[in-house]
Amino acid sequence: MSKTMENLAAAFAGESQARNKYTFFAEVARQEGYHYIAKIFEETAFNEMQHAKDHFKKMGGLGDTIANLKEAIDGEDYETVTMYPDFAKEAENEGDKEAARLFIQVGKVEAEHRERYKKILEMVENGTVYKRDEPIAWKCGICGYIVEAKEPPKKCPSCQYPQEYYEPACMVF
Question: In what residue span(s) does the Rubredoxin-like domain sit (predicted)?
């Protein structure tokens, strides 16, 4: 790997961490009544995300949706199978039971992420993202219009946005 690629990877990691930190800092500022300061943290976090995206793109990190889903599956699998179990063992060996518990629980969430991405990948590859065998409730992500059907309309009858803005409606409360 060239030094430039190493620098891009380091810059991507740094900007990504800064974005998250500033988002967390904004929450604290807002809780303490500093809404203007929270806005500044959030604006800066957005800027950092854009910087990270530029570095990631330059590194060749963005593919099409299928490639991105496959990479996401691989990442979640690594976290599930290797990273979090190893971290939990190390924490346990060091006597930090709370950190070990956290690593184990987060690892379970990562497994769910992996399975969700696998299901979505299958749907994209099979052309069934907007098709179901049985009618379901589809919700327009723009105006909230809900239709019961095997697939959403090509255009929302309410706001006229295209089918790509529809998603399965979650009706469980």
Answer: 135-169
